[in-house]
Amino acid sequence: MDAYPEAEAPLQSIVELVPVLIAVTDGGLRVLTVAQGTLLPNGPLSPLRNSLQAGVKLWVAKQTSQPMGYVEQLYTFVDTHRRNEHGMPVLYVSYLGLVREAADSILHPDAKWQDCYGYFPWEDLRTDGGQRDAVVSRLRIWANSADTEEVRQKRLKHIHLCWGVEPENWSEEYVLQRYEMLYESGLIAEAAEPQANFDFALTGQTMRHDHRRVLATALSRLRAKIKYRPVIFELMPPEFTLLQLQNSVEAISGRLLHKQNFRRQIQQQNLIEPSDTGVSGSKGRPAQLCRFRDDVLPDRLISDIGLPLGSR
């Protein structure tokens, strides 16, 4: 049986489950894909399953062999561009899963971890933000091509708000809004009316079946969630250094954080403690290994983990 039959054969159901599995590995934000990076794991909802989450785990196991961890439901999408065998639009029920990246030797041969920012290059501002500036320049051209002054001003205002153009500030959580604007402007290959003579490499790797929109929604949710719940620890190994923790938060937010401020705020939250192992064995000055405190309830609120706090 095909690992993802909905991609090649008539659909058996109008409802598909689409899990977005995210990991942070060596300071990089990663997403698990199938079909050579063009799809997220997915499969039709089976009436034989007792729950949606059971269906999600089934398709993840079947298509990727990636062990599951934290999972929560995202949103429901209707893909009006796809129809099942009865002519009905396909409904996606999406999930966000936070995992630790499994080795290639464990994964299904068709499953592959990808750099998340390969799909959203403008979202990674840990460098100079040049990719974002190039995209904003193209969006300005699109805005100025409006038929009326009212529409032009509306587009420009939306660009300022979503893309952090002065006097507005960049918001990490607006991943989906920025993606939707690129779709509307025809600056991504998946757009209903993609712009002619435009190099879509500027706006990232494409995905089939509107899965890049689902991924954008997942990244928006994760960036918002790490500000008020300690889900970052779902992505960390049992023991880690404060630098590894900071690098992981930076990978998710796409921003560099101020080292001293970050450490002070993490310690004030009283979420971590020194591990029994002591210090890391890396070269140079040894670093204290930490771990997440077992007595901290999973739903404890974090007042602020500092996104963004500026340069390190």
Automatic annotation (TrEMBL):
Domain annotation NrtR DNA-binding winged helix: ranges? 232-292
Report the Gene3D superfamilies cross-referenced here: Winged helix-like DNA-binding domain superfamily/Winged helix DNA-binding domain
Pfam families (UniProt xref): WHD_NrtR
Annotated signal sequence is: none
Family matches, as InterPro entries: NMN_biosyn (IPR011213), WH-like_DNA-bd_sf (IPR036388), WH_DNA-bd_sf (IPR036390), WHD_NrtR (IPR054105)
What is the protein's given name?
Membrane protein
